[in-house]
């Protein structure tokens, strides 16, 4: 099949290399607002660069992969849906609930596929943890502890457009907690601080955050995130049950040093970033999308999953601002009052 890749930045370049090596992809057509960048990525990956997004849609591709800046996601999702094209899109659908629901309505009306990019669902560790929870191996799951730490903060220009730490970063934890447990979040309590560069405060954002989530079966989940972890990129999760406790993301490259006297020396070079840490997961995710387009697999992460995770992020942001617990029903009621009820 012929796939159009929109966006040739860091994640787009990675996807280009992965897609050209994916069985079932006969040609990859790359476009970016910077044609020179698209040409460079295409040449490196063995793909073909086209002169802009319009050219990709005119080329008669079989599917589209969206790896552009967040602000362009809703428009491109809608355009692809109206053209009858299956879409893989990096999260989010949109930085706000109204934009997300509007785009999902277009996809629903068109009857097309929208697979969202939540790569942790394809990571071997998270998959094993999901199996352990769903099989009952842990007994009654009562506590989840999730950690997401960037090795260094993003550029100052990125922060005002990111949606903030809960929507941009912790949304991955919110999604994987729902997916792993099969439970919904009913209430959150969140806090955040901004002790680093001034551009976080200038954007009304935080660089370090924590949230306590209550799931619909009473399980408690704590999630923390920071933009400052100089030892390396660190994404981990612990799941504690009445019978056992397991951990995801603890290995030879985890940037975590034990100070216990009987602990061994640090392991290999720590993870540098998300593309390094989740290389295999991203490749598996894209390979699955190709199979979905070919009719060989069900969509593993439809757009409504991104909406649910964003609702949790919105609740956390409201909780942080107002310093109070927020029920998810408040966020759901708000979308209904705004005329943006969730598509069926």
UniProtKB/TrEMBL annotation:
It comes from the Bacteria. The keyword Hydrolase does not apply. Residues 126-243 form the GFO/IDH/MocA-like oxidoreductase domain. Keywords: Oxidoreductase. It comes from Wenjunlia vitaminophila (Streptomyces vitaminophilus). InterPro entries: Gfo/Idh/MocA-like_OxRdtase_N (IPR000683), GFO_IDH_MocA-like_dom (IPR055170), NAD(P)-bd_dom_sf (IPR036291). Residues 1-118 form the Gfo/Idh/MocA-like oxidoreductase N-terminal domain. Belongs to the Gfo/Idh/MocA family. This is Dehydrogenase.
């Amino acid at each position: 099949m012929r796939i159009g890749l929109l966006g040739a930045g860091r994640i787009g370049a990675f996807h280009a290399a992965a897609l050209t090596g994916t069985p079932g992809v006969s040609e990859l057509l790359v476009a970016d607002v910077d044609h020179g960048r698209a040409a460079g990525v295409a040449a490196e990956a063995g793909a073909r660069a086209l002169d802009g997004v319009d050219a990709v849609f005119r080329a008669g591709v079989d599917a589209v992969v969206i790896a552009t800046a967040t602000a362009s996601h809703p428009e491109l999702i809608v355009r692809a849906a109206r053209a009858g094209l299956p879409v893989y899109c990096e999260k989010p659908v949109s930085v706000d609930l109204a934009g997300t629901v509007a785009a999902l309505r277009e996809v629903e009306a068109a009857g097309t596929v929208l697979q969202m990019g939540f790569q942790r669902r394809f990571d071997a560790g998270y998959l094993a943890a999901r199996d352990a929870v769903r099989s009952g191996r842990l007994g009654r799951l009562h506590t989840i502890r999730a950690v997401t730490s960037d090795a260094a903060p993003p550029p100052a220009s990125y922060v005002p457009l990111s949606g903030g730490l809960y929507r941009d970063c912790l949304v991955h934890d919110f999604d994987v907690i729902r997916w792993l447990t099969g439970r919904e979040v009913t209430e959150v309590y969140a806090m955040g601080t901004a002790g680093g560069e001034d551009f976080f405060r200038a954007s009304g954002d935080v660089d370090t955050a924590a949230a306590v989530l209550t799931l619909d079966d009473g399980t408690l989940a704590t999630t923390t995130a920071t933009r400052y972890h100089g030892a390396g990129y660190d994404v981990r999760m612990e799941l504690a049950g009445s019978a056992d406790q397991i951990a995801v993301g603890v290995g030879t490259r985890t940037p975590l040093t034990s100070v216990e006297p009987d602990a061994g020396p640090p392991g290999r070079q720590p993870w540098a970033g998300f593309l390094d840490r989740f290389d295999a997961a991203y490749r598996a995710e894209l390979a699955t999308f190709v199979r979905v387009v070919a009719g060989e697999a069900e969509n593993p992460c439809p757009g409504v999953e991104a909406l649910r995770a964003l609702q949790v992020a919105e609740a956390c942001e409201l909780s942080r601002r107002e310093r109070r617990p927020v029920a998810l029903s408040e966020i759901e009621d708000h979308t209904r009052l705004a005329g943006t009820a969730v598509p069926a």
